[in-house]
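Please, structure for the following, as tokens.
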Amino acid sequence: MVEAIVSQQLNGRAAEVIFERLKTILHSNTIRPNALCKLHVAKLRRAGVSPQKIKYLKDLSSRVVERKLDLEFLRSLPDEEIACRLDEVMGIGPWTAHMFLLFTLGRPDVLPVGDLGIQMAIKRNYSLRKVPDAERIKRIAKDWHPYCSIASLYLWRSKNT
């Protein structure tokens, strides 16, 4: 979740650098909620985390520490329920929930319609004149179920070819 929040609205390389700095500051490859809760804001800023994202990370970590959000329990829920529960966390919306479902939980049928990379790849691969909106993407992807995640990965990859 932390990595998904850090990655919001950043290119992949910038997000990786900030996330690596965060792990270095915490002296761990695994970011623990307790450690993140206790981490001073100034250290998060030095890692490159924006003030807004610091609020999001603090809200997330405090919810986990206070047992208001059980990330392990989320694994047992359907995708829509996970997205609803994550939406309660400050700074987590559909895009972040989709990234969590896809990359952390490995769910097979995630279609991140709000992702600019997906939108641009569909525009290019389907020779569209303009960037497709969510409804157009859903229509295009109607036959991709139950493997939208795989299609999404191919679309992201197609940007680099």
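The mean pLDDT is 94. The chain has eleven helices and no strands.
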